[in-house]
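Provenance

Sequences were taken from public entries as deposited. Structures were produced by running a predictor on each sequence independently, with no templates supplied. The record for Thioredoxin domain-containing protein from Niastella yeongjuensis is shown for reference.
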Amino acid sequence: MKHFFSLIALTVLLSFSPSGDIYSVAVKALDGNSLDLNQYKGKKVLFVVLSLSAEDTTVRASQLAELQDKYRSTLVIVGVPSIEAGFKTADADKLKGLYKDAHILISEGMNVNKGAQQSALFQWLTHKEQNRHFDQDVRGVGSKFFVDESGELYAVMGANLTPAHPLMEKILTKPQRKNP
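Predicted structure for Thioredoxin domain-containing protein:
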């Protein structure tokens, strides 16, 4: 009987495990094409909520470009325009122009804040039951989510940590976790 209850408890526990990894989340690029995250397995991926204006200094394209150039062999940066921050599909060309020299991937506009309209990507990034590590809402433009080479969310930072901040180096040079 004791083993029976243990088996039931294990079954219940496993039924609440995360439904998928970051690589199974469907993401579209700004141009409407599919952005297959599977191709970035083995690299760190930084998801950053983009500024929609050159006047907004929260996330500068030049800082993202420097970061991408410095870590080009180990890092992929995916910029996400936030619908809550005012992104509209009509702004796509303006956004492409703003980040053209940053050498980053740009997704389609997404609802990034928790709620009924939140995109699947940000549901995974902001809900602990999906990413297994963090339960933290987006803190506005400049919010950053760091995924390691094995698809684990390992750091979440707000806008106050700019791409040029010295802590970024520490986060991005975190040694790859050994598989158990």
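Residues 1-18 have pLDDT under 50 and may be disordered.
Residues 79 and 179 are 29 Å apart (CA to CA).
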